[in-house]
Amino acid sequence: MSKGNILIIDDEQQLRALIKRIISLEGFIVHEAANLKEAARLLEKEPIDVILCDVKLPDGNGVDFTTWLKSKYPMTEVILLTAFANIPDGVQAIKNGAFDYITKGNDNDRILPLLYQATDRVLMQKRSAVKINEGAVTAFSSIIGGSPIIQQTISLARKIAPTNTTVLLLGETGSGKEVFAKAIHAGSKRNAGPYIAINCSAFTKDLLEGELFGHKAGAYTGASKDKKGLFEMADSGTFFMDEIGEMNIDIQSKLLRMIENGEFIKLGDTKTTKVDVRIIAATNRDLQKEVSEGHFREDLYYRLNTFTISLPPLRERKEDIKELAEYFLKFFSIREGKNGLKLSAEALQALQTYSWRGNIRELRNLMERSVILADEEYIYFQDLSSEIQSQSTSPDKYSLAEVEKMHIKKILTYTENNKTKAAQLLGIGIATLYRKLEEYGINK
After folding, report:
1. Which residue has the higher pLDDT, 227 or 184?
2. Mean pLDDT for the chain overall
3. Residue 109 in this model has a pLDDT that exceeds 80
4. How far apart are the C-alpha atoms of 416 and 95, rounded to whole Å?
5. Distant-in-sequence, close-in-space partners of 266: CB < 8 Å, separation ≥ 6
6. For every residue of 44-57, which 3-state class applies, written as one string?
7. What is the pTM of this model?
8. How many angstroms separate the CA atoms of 428 and 120, rounded?
9. Domains of the chain, start order
10. Cα–Cα distance for residue pair 125/118, rounded to 1 Å
11. Average of per-residue pLDDT across 116-139
């Protein structure tokens, strides 16, 4: 049995291989990354318990990386390794949340004891999260936004989380339904159990039925052995069913029985299987309309509709856009090795006035694209997508920032790009002018 998942971040391949061999023999599962960009990508896919991270890497500093990591993955512990230890770095590393700070070579004998201590701490943190009060607070801390409407939604979800009640999440595509589903699970009594998710629109009727309920060997051509369904895999935990409005009506009666009695019959079986699963369903469809048109069972709708939470679209919580954009900017900047990227005032204004039909998912994708394309310290208006640029015209084009930019351009044209003279005419210092040129992307 694995003692924990470990990630080694070091650009020296031979050193990584040596450390990996040592700790693998102790029963740990070991992953490797040569830089912070690779590490960030791996962290999105793998549940890492402890990271052994070099301080100096090709695309960043392990001490700074620790700050980002603890904000994104608070339960993951970091042990920093350095070839040349110094007291200020060590103090800052601990302040940033590192578990320890050791010297390569001199402290090699400390690596295994520290790994055991760090994994013990991670285990204790995970166990403490089972406590409902603590778990509910921690669970919803991952949801970004301080607007009244999103805080009201979080408060409602936090109240229902500790119960076993079925929850129906309503909201447009990309509004964060799965983020809420995970938070409700994490804040529930079931958070030590599995969290299983499925998108009902991704499967045909027959495939979906097999995925949900499983089958016995010989149930159909190609079914050579028994297969557990997702409901069985989610036993004692939470099952999130996204896009439930897309589910074929023929499967809905079987789902209704499962929700009411916790029982179902696998394909090709003759006896019932019993499970204890909490259902969280989500849809962007109007289920009442689907019921009236005969596409969704009325009894299933009322069973799912025991407790409904409506998630607001991003256009109704525009005061959260800045915080969300800066969060995604920081995340993708670290992943792509472009630490320190900022949003120009003009770009931020465009984000805050855009309609966001794709909601948070569209914003996330835009920030990822912008980070990849960015060549300078700032993400400028012209780095944004053509859809945002085209929508950010009049009247928002005449914001204070836009008027200032237009005025600076006119003065530069008048002075034939003589910046010293332009600064004099504008009544500002030359350093201030250069800062504004950079911020607005003038002469980029």
Report:
1. 184
2. 86
3. no
4. 51
5. 213, 214, 215, 216, 219, 229, 273
6. HHCCCCEEEEECEE
7. 0.61
8. 58
9. 5-128 (3.40.50.2300), 134-310 (3.40.50.300), 316-440 (1.10.8.60)
10. 11
11. 63
